[in-house]
Amino acid sequence: MSGHSKWATIKRQKGANDAKRGALFTKLSKAITLAVSAGGGVADPAQNFRLRLAVDAAKAGNMPKDTIERAIEKAAGKNGAVLQEAMYEGFGPGGVGILVEAATDNKNRTTSEIQNVFNKYGGNMGAMGSVAYQFKKMGQLAVEKGSKTYDDIFLESADAGAEDVEDADSEVLVYTQPTELIKAKDALTGKGIAVADAELVWKPTMTVGVDDATGEKVMTIMEKLEELDDVVKTYSNMS
After folding, report:
1. Does residue 161 sit in the same domain as residue 214?
2. For residue 5, what is the enclosing H or E element?
3. Long-range contacts: 153-157, Cβ < 8 Å, 24+?
4. Closest CA to 55 of 39, 41, 42, 71
5. Are residues 102 and 119 in the same domain?
6. CB of 116 within 8 A of CB of 161?
7. 8-state DSSP, 81
8. Running DSSP on this structure, what letter comes out for residue 160?
9. Per-residue confidence (pLDDT) for residue 2, from 0 to 100
10. Which runs of consecutive H residues, i.e. helices, occur in 48-170?
11. Residue 80: its pLDDT value, please?
12. Based on the domain organization, do 98 and 68 belong to the same domain?
């Protein structure tokens, strides 16, 4: 598999298995809030594809049904803290570009916390636009191979509208246009293909090669960033 697929898969699997994040439900609730806001206040997952992704992620994270429903109701209401999306850009060891998605009610606090992590673990914050141009917003499906081969999934994914497909050991990463993600997921599951995860991601269009030691240092920065309450996801372009 490609170097980027390797690190992307390791990061996703570490995140899925990392029970130390006690604030998981808080992050999932924030994602629901942002999804409702981005969808113009539409609180029906059937009519708001980003909200459906957030709800699916909450279910995968074992968030109780009533907790999910309360989060949607709160997001559709007018009370509570107003969250805004924020994107931060920086560099890790080896010149690797890192994007940080955040949801915050206090940008000054969030900026300071993120900058502290970069500085403490061998990275540095970048100016707006210094990293983002190396990424493209895409839909990403993590498909389990099971008894199927990469070629089998490649053909089915192409029929489902995929724009790119990458082999990733026991999984295949399928990329689509953001608005086509749900359609592609439904098409694949309808063919009996197991989709382990579906999300909107920033996929690198330019990558930076690193050795394993440097890669581990970059992963540490990303993990420490994601331990911050306001950070939703991180992405890198290392390979």
Report:
1. no
2. helix 3-17
3. 153/193, 156/187, 156/188, 156/191, 156/193, 157/184, 157/188
4. 71
5. yes
6. no
7. P
8. T
9. 59
10. 49-60, 65-76, 107-120, 150-159
11. 52
12. no
- Taking 80 as the threshold, does the pLDDT of residue 161 lie above it? yes
Give the chain's end-to-end CA distance (angstroms, integer): 10
* pTM for this prediction: 0.83
Per-residue model confidence (pLDDT) at position 1: 46
107 Rama class: left (phi>0) / alpha (psi -120 to 50) / beta: alpha
Beta bridge partners of 45: none
> What is the pLDDT confidence band of residue 169, given thresholds at 50, 70 and 90?
confident
- The token duo for 147 is 């008894």
Q: What percent of the chain has pLDDT over 90?
A: 62
Question: Taking Cα atoms as reference points, which of 28, 22, 93, 41 lies closest to residue 233?
Answer: 28
Question: Which are the contacts of 70, defined by CB distance < 8 A and separation ≥ 6?
Answer: none
Task: Judge if 231 and 117 occupy the same domain.
Answer: yes
- 214 and 121, same structural domain? yes
Question: Is residue 67 located within the same domain as residue 167?
Answer: no
Please name the residues in contact with 42: beta carbons below 8 A apart, sequence gap of 6 or more. 36, 48, 51
Place of tokens 């990463």: 173
Which tokens go with 179?
């608005």
Q: Domain containing 106: what range?
A: 85-128+206-236
Q: How many residues does the chain have?
A: 239
